[in-house]
């Protein structure tokens, strides 16, 4: 421990550079009116973000590799051939965003990884095994589904061929867009197997702020079920069709939303959200012929999540009869809850204690790349507070001091794991 | 009466031409896949429909005039200067359509008007006062609101200047589009005041078919209230925001739809429809920041309609508090119920009897140009059945025989009103 501490004293976080890079990356794809940035996976703006990240990796003289799904890896190599041959300690997250997003979601984890290797560079030290900084492709899943695709492919949960064939909401093929922006690499995604994986992220929820805790020690992550539901009714004249004779797809969709709200309210941890909804023909004086909407169900308990899915399906069956509509539901994504590696969770807690930060163990409400990598390597996550719990929004904010606290814990955990 | 009948015997409806023209006009803007046609007001396709109508008016050697809002008038003139100076008996409707519409809504009334004057031409007879066939601009109100705009301007309910300044859902200015398609005329809309006004239309509802009646004698028309409601909430992460801490604009919109459904179900004649709804940012894993939707309320009783509007406003006020959202509602259109001219209603009923058709007196569920012209002249409407009550849909259908029945009644009423 003493030597470790001595050594750790030489390897220091450069907070100024980390904060500056967060701002610079946040300016790419930024809309000056809303203050939000939009770097949806494999668009021109996201390519610009990738180019900036790669440039920063070059400045740190990292070994840069791109895999076939476009995941970017920047590796700080150790000195000896034996050490070089070891599996890397990986620090990762993503730099793609939702529409009109904040600057921290994902980017904070990737750039804090760069800050860790920068600390080694500035101390002129080398680690005793490779440290790889990873930026995974399409974590948000806005344009191409499922989300967390890059890390999912790495973990072998989705074949690279299937992933490249994915058709986006805009009709584009993922493989084509990846080539177009110049990030279709050669590395086989499944060949990248880390020794251990760490991800630092903003909470994107209100819990740490509400309890005035500086660090979230993430124990587990709730399961996610995404469905797309299409309701087919009849487009009739809004003025001449008696209510009892209607097959109103819009009304049917609204009643599903009401059902989901009550389902969530009546359960302990289940969350239910309808974030996207479209009506056709979408005219003021025509009853909706069809309604297409998404359902996002989450629960840290797999049994509870399954029960929510079952209850929804049962309700849709009743609604079909009751409203004389046809309902088709399609699973877009499904991930079971994840339990993170206890050794890493304990290590993160110990670091938070050693550095004197207030902390709490907690569940991750959002999906993260860490849940995918957890399938192939020990994984752990560190959270910092989000003001008002807001994310996926220009008002997403974490104080600089809190951002640096999280990066300090990440660096400390890395040093401990490398037993340096 | 005898002379009338004798005379009427010479003036006969040419059913073949009427049915052929309905089909020809229906082919303009038609989508061969869906079988529906789209001639939204002042688009290129609607201009093509206008050009065809004007060509047919020319074939009948009618006096053609276009007013400043683009209403098309084709007049069959009487013989003497005295008769020519009389106010015209007007037969009108519209030829613009909703998206993916049927071939009869509106067009049936206009082309039946042409059939009436054709009957005079083919019998080589002249009426004792002008007969004007009118096609009113933008009855559907899909692109520019309010709907029934052309007849509303004629009736002095909307100034021509305001109407021409209307900005469409696609950002275009009505006056510019009217010029672009070449239908910005010189006639002052309010200078056109009919002696009497008749409109023949498909029911667009299921009542006549359900009761196996051939003719609908329209006594009145229900009032219409159109509103656009915008709900402002907060865009938070779908996975990390506890249900109790959400300000979900999408959920709030769904609860308004539920409220309206219950309001309509609990009243005798009120109809409530939400036909258009859009969420933002409209993403699967983001709680909706805003929801913008339309409300279409109808009732034949003005007091009932007002009460529905009041109850909706009261509910929105409660919802604002309960869900922590901001709600703004804007009146897009508001028309009181209309009572049609009793003399004309009786005349239509008498004609239906004389021609041996089964009929019923009824309320019009849809809005029609007749309700606007009723403000400045005695007006009446004739309905024919709609199969399955379907309209604003490619499956809109009325049997040829039923279409000709309606035209027969129209022609007979015209001959009676002209006391020929």
From TrEMBL, chains A, B:
Its cofactor is Zn(2+). The keyword Transit peptide does not apply. This is Putative hydantase. Zn(2+) 2 binds at residues 105, 140, 392. Zn(2+) 1 binds at residues 94, 105, 201. Binds 2 Zn(2+) ions per subunit. The keyword Zinc applies. InterPro entries: Amidase_Cbmase, Bact_exopeptidase_dim_dom, Peptidase_M20, Peptidase_M20_dimer. Keywords: Hydrolase, Metal-binding, Zinc. One of its GO terms (molecular function) is hydrolase activity, acting on carbon-nitrogen (but not peptide) bonds, in linear amidines. SUPFAM superfamilies: Bacterial exopeptidase dimerisation domain, Zn-dependent exopeptidases. Residues 222-317 form the Peptidase M20 dimerisation domain. It comes from Advenella mimigardefordensis (strain DSM 17166 / LMG 22922 / DPN7). Belongs to the peptidase M20 family.
């Amino acid at each position: 421990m003493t030597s470790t501490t001595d050594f750790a004293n030489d390897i220091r976080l450069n907070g100024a550079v980390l904060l500056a890079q967060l701002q610079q990356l946040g300016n790419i794809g930024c809309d000056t009116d809303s203050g939000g940035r939009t770097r949806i996976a494999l668009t021109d703006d996201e390519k610009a973000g990738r180019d900036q990240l790669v440039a920063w990796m070059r400045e740190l003289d990292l070994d840069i590799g791109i895999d076939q799904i476009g995941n970017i890896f920047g590796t700080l190599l150790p000195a000896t051939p034996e050490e070089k041959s070891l599996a890397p300690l990986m620090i990762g997250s993503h730099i793609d965003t939702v529409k009109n997003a904040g600057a921290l979601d994902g980017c904070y984890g990737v750039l804090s990884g760069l800050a860790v290797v920068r600390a080694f560079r500035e101390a002129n030290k080398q680690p005793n095994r490779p440290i790889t900084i990873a930026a995974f492709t399409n974590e948000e899943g806005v344009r191409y589904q499922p989300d967390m695709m890059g890390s999912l492919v790495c973990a072998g949960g989705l074949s690279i061929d299937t992933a490249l064939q994915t058709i986006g909401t805009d009709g584009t093929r993922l493989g084509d867009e990846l080539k177009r922006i110049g990030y279709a690499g050669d590395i086989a995604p499944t060949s990248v197997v880390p020794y251990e994986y760490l991800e630092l992220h903003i909470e994107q929820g209100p819990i740490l702020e509400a309890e005035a805790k500086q660090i979230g020690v993430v124990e587990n992550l709730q399961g996610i079920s995404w469905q797309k539901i299409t309701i087919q009714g009849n487009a009739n004249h809004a003025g001449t069709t008696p209510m009892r004779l209607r097959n109103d797809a819009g009304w049917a969709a609204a009643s599903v939303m009401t059902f989901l709200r009550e389902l969530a309210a009546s359960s302990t941890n289940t969350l239910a959200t309808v974030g996207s909804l479209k009506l056709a023909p979408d005219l003021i004086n025509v009853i909706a012929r069809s309604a297409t909407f998404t359902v996002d169900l989450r629960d840290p308990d797999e049994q509870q999540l399954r029960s929510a899915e079952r209850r929804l399906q049962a309700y849709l069956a009743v609604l079909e009869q009751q409203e004389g509509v046809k309902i088709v539901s399609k699973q877009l994504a499904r991930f079971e809850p994840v339990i993170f590696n206890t050794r890493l969770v304990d290590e993160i807690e110990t670091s938070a204690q050693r550095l004197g930060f207030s902390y709490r163990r907690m569940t991750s409400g959002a999906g993260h790349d860490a849940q995918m990598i957890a399938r192939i390597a020990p994984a752990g996550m560190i959270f910092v507070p989000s003001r008002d719990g807001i994310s996926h929004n220009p008002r997403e904010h974490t104080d600089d001091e809190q951002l640096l606290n999280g990066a300090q814990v990440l660096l400390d955990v890395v040093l401990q794991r490398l037993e340096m």
